[in-house]
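Researcher: Structure for this, please.
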Amino acid sequence: MKNVSTAALVAILILFHNSLKAQFTDNFSDGDFTSNPTWVGNTNDWMVNSSMQLQSNNTVANSTYYLSTANTLATAAQWDWFTRIEFNPSGPNSIDVYLTASASDLASNSTVGYFVRIGNTDDEIALYRKDAGGTITKIIDGANGILNSSASMMKIRVIRTANNQWSLLRDLSGTGTTYVSEGTVTDATYTTSSFFGILVRQSTASFFQKHFFDDFEVKAYVPDVTPPAIVSATAVSPNTIDVLFNEPVDLTTSQVAANYSANNGIGSPTTAVRDAANTSLVRLTFANNFPSGPVHTLTINNVQDLSGNAISNGTASFSFYIPKQFDIVIDELMPDPSPVVSLPNTEWVELKNTSGRAINLQGWRITTASATSGAMASYVLPADSFVVITSSTQVAAFAAYGRVLGVSSFPALPNEAGTVSLISREGATIHTVSYSDTWYQNAVKKEGGWTLEMIDTRNPCNGGNNWRASVDPRGGTPGAKNSIDAANPDQTSPSLVRAAATDNLTVVLTFSEPVDSARAATASNYTISDGVGTPVSALTIAPAFNRVQLRLATPLQTGRVYTITANNVADCSGNTISSFNTARVGLPSPIDSFSIVINEVLFNPPTNGVDYVEIYNRTNNVYDLKDLYINNRAGSTLALGTPRQVSTDNLLLFPGEYFVLSPSGEMVKQQFNALNPQNFVDVASFPSYPNDRGYVVLMNAQGIIVDELAYSNQWHYRLLDNEKGVALERIDFNRPTQDQNNWHSAASTSGFGTPSYQNSQYRADVTLQGEVTITPKTFSPDNDGYEDFTVINYRLTDPGYVANITIFDAAGRPVRLLAKNATLGLNGSFRWDGLNDKQARVPIGAYVVYTEVFNIDGKKRSFKNTVVVAARF
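Model: Predicted structure, token format:
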């Protein structure tokens, strides 16, 4: 070891001490700017705020004020700091940050040095030199317009090498992670400094106290001798790679395509283009598409950084993979966050990567039936991991829960029922969930604050059978495995629910669950009866994939009902359709008056229940419920309300078929026996039907009334203990709708309602011509659904008759005047419910029904019929 003299050692220590004095940092964590270091100038115009940042405090218009601190470092130096401005800068409203200054008074014309101007009329960040007399010269002209915003934040870095080359860099994210070069210049005019500082110009109150600074650091510059390194290589399209370096790279060398090469026969790109905004990023475009799936290696040589250091044999792995359906699934939903249990009061969905490989979500979107989110930013979701997707304004609220990705225009999730889909960058539907608040299976949790969680993410398309309310005490599990996670395999085969013809060559099939796209799109898997045969093509319809469109070679004929059979169609779990693989289809006819009739009405539902209206097709035609509307009347004028379309999709009503319309078919099916559970349709904004009296109106697409019922609760069986939860049923399809005698309370033995199947009180017309008959001749009016009343049927040969009908007991005493001066048609009927004129019960026994008919010409005719009341009520 060489000997070092005492004098030389002292000199080295003094030089090192002076070097330390030349450097400084200040993040204002001590709460002031009066020491460590000491700032001087217009000190009353500045303050350290509660966020421990230096903030302007001048509230005088047309002011110029400054703050400076001692600093002698001027060459081989690096300056870094953070700035935030809450205004759009202009010429009279800008900031000068002096890197070197000959004196502490930065506003003096005699002070010379170098400064960075933030703002000015060009909304830029630029480097200036200030000479004696106040003359300023722009020596690095930054990009115009980058600060043209109501607010901006930035990290700025200036480097001066020992040979006086200046570099100006900025990061507009304010994080200091990715700097962009504003340019370089060589200038050696001033090589000494005494102060560093800030000079602010402001014009009006709009700019008061809106300048913020932090994290000042001035230090000796250590030359960069390290070549750039590859941070990532990401395939952003089938033939494009984005290469991200750890620092800005030289424009010329980074854009030489021959400096890049990929293995597996891919070769060099056709073009290499450095990004204009991020000079650390280079986009490579290749002539041919990458093979999907395999991992490839990209090798890079001769690309230099801004200091001239060149990378040699740098490598990075990349792969191109087009995500398939169910590679990523929506496994948790928060459609109704209020009332809050614990989680943030905002809507969100959670995604889980089930593909077994990392997938970049860049360009992906969330959609609902009415809206689509903005595209997701570049974000690699690792295999078997979760990420919360929410509004970009709510990202901070989920910081404690793990991975979160914000999107603009996050679509609203309906509380009660909705459809939400995940769409890839390529426009493919990766997963769709059509949810309902019935999936909670919990009356309290469905009211808000709790999430819906998927039970088994390996079974992503099994609907409500695979979802429940979260049991986590926070209300959900954002960013983590679901609280109800468990094995729940799908072992149920899909069924063919219905078919609809949209024209004579197009049929759309609806299955009970999503189906495998490839197998469902095989035309040979379908056959149609009556000579139509196999369709020409089949197409699985996104986003739910539970519908298939068939194109036919032979057109369907009006007035004919066909049968479609599906074979070899499977769900997404591989279960193949077996039974329930047929459906009827036909060309729909225009809906005419009295073709579809109101057949059953529940207007006073059970507790927690809903109203419903059952309709019936009394013709031999097929009708499309997409062309049918349900309505009501209200107000003193009984004006029609707003028509509600029964179905937004094609939904066929076949001859002799029933369909139940309600706001919630699931709720109706929970409270009544439904023999045809598929024949229910939920109608949005279902009309109101009061408990005492109201109007049910059916209309076609042209606004013509098809059928109408003005009902009353007085039409119920008079001795019912409670009308609540009891439906009113039509007796005969062919008799007038508005005939009170054609309606009766549903039988107790049928659960007081028969939605989707034949009414408990149904009775066909059995009258004989020229006669008055009683059917049945023995009845037991106990409301058990079996012969609760008797019908007095008449048929006359001439019109214009009037009738009086009286009921006598066995002793010849009148007990009920059933009809008085009732105008008759050629045929019709009356109903006796076993009550007397005082609405009291008649004793069991035989009774005589005396019917007298007459007309204005004096012609009379009478009939006597015997009827037996067989049991008490």
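Researcher: Any notable elements?
Model: The chain has four helices and 62 strands. Residues 514 and 546 are 4 Å apart (CA to CA).
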